[in-house]
Amino acid sequence: MKKTIRGATLEIVQGDITVLNVEAIVNAANKYLAHGGGVALAIVRKGGLSIQTESAALIARRGPLTTGEAVVTGGGKLPAKFVIHTVGPVWSEHDPLEADRLLCRAVTSSLTLAEEQGLKSIAFPAISTGIYGFPIERAAPLLLQEAKRHLEGGPGLERVLFCLYDDASYRVFESAFASL
């Protein structure tokens, strides 16, 4: 599914984010950029250890990330040239409205960083909806609405995708997308 917003494309797809032909993919990271599970592990497995090595060096220089913050590393052997790592909220650690705000911040931080890098295309997973426990039915409209709001702000990114790995997640995003 696709929508055009101020000349840019917002879309949802089902599949493997690590094989997408975009300039950057977003990693739903932890604050230490220790890529040991979920999307993060899949990214390192496909992209190579250089992603983890670069991530570890970044954390050694600057310290852990805060929730909603985003940083960038190279993409290693991935089709994407860059990986933008962002820390989404752990659902059980915040009241619902604060979790919503932090999830939106993770999207905005990632999109802003992509634009600062001069990128035109980026793909997101369903940030925080896995092990972090954020209910996907709540996250999907927030993620999509925040991306839409950012694209409405003007020129910059030309293509923003949300890549959902399984059928159930795609269906939730499809429903939220239809309501945009």
Structure characterization notes:
- The protein has 180 residues and is an alpha/beta fold.
- The relative contact order is 0.21.
- The N and C termini lie close together (12 Å).
- The protein is built from 5 helices and 7 strands.
- It is 41% helix and 21% strand.
- It has a 7-stranded mixed beta sheet, with helices on both faces.
- α4 (136-152) links the parallel β6 (121-124) and β7.
- It has one domain (2-178): 3-Layer(aba) Sandwich (Leucine Aminopeptidase, subunit E, domain 1), CATH 3.40.220.
- α4 (136-152) packs across α5.
- The protein is globular.
Q: Quick one: overall form? A: globular
| Helix content class | 40-55%
Tally of alpha and pi helices: 5
Q: Quote the CATH topology.
A: Leucine Aminopeptidase, subunit E, domain 1
CATH superfamily: Leucine Aminopeptidase, subunit E, domain 1
Strand count, sense and closure of the main sheet? 7 strands, mixed
What fraction strand? 15-25%
Structural class by helix and strand composition: alpha/beta
CATH class: Alpha Beta
Instruction: Please give the order of strands in the largest beta sheet.
Output: 1-2-7-6-3-5-4
Query: What is the level-2 CATH architecture name?
Result: 3-Layer(aba) Sandwich
Overall tally of structural domains:
1
**Mean pLDDT, all residues:** 96
SSE order, as H and E?
A: EEEHHEEHEHEH
Question: Which residue ranges are poorly predicted, with pLDDT under 50 across at least 5 consecutive positions?
Answer: none
Total number of strands: 7
Q: Whole-Å distance between the termini?
A: 12 Å
* Radius of gyration, taken over Cα atoms and rounded to an integer in Å: 15 Å
